[in-house]
Design goal:
Blueprint lengths: L2 H10 L2 H12 L2 E2 H5 L6 H13 L3 E6 L2 E6 L1 H35 L1
Antiparallel strand pairs: 1-3, 2-3
Helix pairs in contact: 1-4, 2-4
Amino acid sequence: MPHAEQNTFRALADPTRRDILRHLASQDMTIAQVAQNFDMTRAAVKKHLTVLSDGGLITVKARGREKINTLNKDGFALIFDWFSYFDAFWDDRLSDLKSAIEKDQKND
């Protein structure tokens, strides 16, 4: 698995980070704003945001002294591509199974 994919899936592996993404889906937030939604220190939230940024799922921009965290829709393309491959894989397998069952039923 390429390095970028590894970072992206590592970022998604943690339920807290997935919750952070849900919050960022509704609006861009500073670290302090994100931290208000969780029972953890601001430093812990910053670590989660760093992992999300390293995974390409969010972007962080400076606005004065604040860091604004924003969802990066392009970062999710890698995930969609990965799941699309397996979606097509299972579609093919299920179609083959259906054909085999129908063929077997005709032979009865």
